[in-house]
Amino acid sequence: MRRIRAAVAETPGAPFTVRDLDLGEPRPDEVLVRMTAAGICHTDLGMRDTWPGRLTPMVFGHEGAGRVEAVGAEVRGVAPGDRVCLTFASCGACEQCATGHPAYCLHARTLNFSGGRADGTTPLSRDGTPVHGGFFGQSSFATHAVVRERGVVPVPADLPNEVAAPLGCSGQTGAGTVLNRLRPEPGASLVVTGAGGVGLSAVMAAVAGCDPVVAVDPVPARRALAVELGAKAALPPGDGLVAALRDLTGGGAHHVVETTGRPEVARQAVAALRPRGELALLGLGGEVTFDVMPLLAKGVRVHGVIEGDSHPGRFLPDLVGLWRRGLFPLETLVTTFPFEEIGSAVRAMEEGGVVKPVLLFD
């Protein structure tokens, strides 16, 4: 057992409060990681606000990066001292995992959203009382985390911490949707709605082969950043948007990546597609209703995409390679904050002034 610091949500919707906790040692298939950085994602905030009260207090965080401090007896892929990126948990044995699609692991809910391990235990405690964790298999809003080996991906020693952290979720979600699921033909048009961390990662992945790439976002600074990253245009939402998108894409987009989770935006996305166009839905949200006739008449294909449909152990090294070539400059999205200032980082994100806050640890 070791004493750590962690940002705890004591009840659903409560602010993150940094507390002293105890963390158990890794089991045979687990890895102890000392965190160097952790990204904050809108999913952390949305899930915190709707998290079941019976699973609190809870430690969130799912974009961790750090250094391995200890490994269980069965771990072979990493060793103490290795730099690693943390990502979602998967079982490795079900049909989806075996066919290279672990984001759709049949045991994903238990492994990522149960508030602990699959057997109901949690490595976290406070004064002998269990504290829930295991969020996305990690709970990286803490100085240390115990993670199953499948959720740990080695990264180069010279990869900056603020780049390594977002790779595990927002980076691979946006980029993977383009590169793994949509796989656009060279010169295809692609629209991204929502220029946050996920949306701008999709923009960066698309600009090398798509033409045009168009971003949609209400925040002028984010639209400007999308253009800086290679988008041909960046438009505000509102009246006339669909017509403008059709004009820019020569009659309709081949692909739309929808990251906002807003029903009205999803409906606009369908309207902005050309015949046989494809819509990828990434944003967490509620119910979306579509008029079926436009879907049928245009032959629209709708994709639901989690974590970019990526196999992290294979895809994250590819993203690091793109970063080295200057084709995936993830650092342009990042603003760093000390871990103890997590409250300020959350406020900056909620106010729209920061795209991707990343917490740095001592």
Account of the protein in words:
The radius of gyration is 20 Å and the shape is globular. It has two domains: 2-154 and 329-360, Quinone Oxidoreductase, Chain A, domain 1 (Alpha-Beta Complex); 174-306, Rossmann fold (3-Layer(aba) Sandwich). The mean pLDDT is 96. Helix content is 30%, strand content 26%. The protein is built from eleven helices and 18 strands. Helix 11 (342-350) links the parallel strand 17 and strand 18. Helix 4 (161-182) packs across helix 5 (197-206), helix 4 packs across helix 10 (312-324) and helix 7 packs parallel to helix 8. Strands 3, 5, 6, 9, 10, 17 and 18 form a seven-stranded mixed sheet that branches. It has helices spanning 42-50, 95-98, 108-113, 161-182, 197-206, 220-228, 241-248, 263-272, 292-298, 312-324, 342-350, and strands spanning 2-9, 17-23, 30-39, 58-59, 64-71, 83-86, 124-126, 129-131, 144-148, 152-154, 190-193, 213-216, 233-235, 253-258, 273-281, 301-304, 334-338, 356-360. By secondary structure, the chain is of the alpha/beta class.
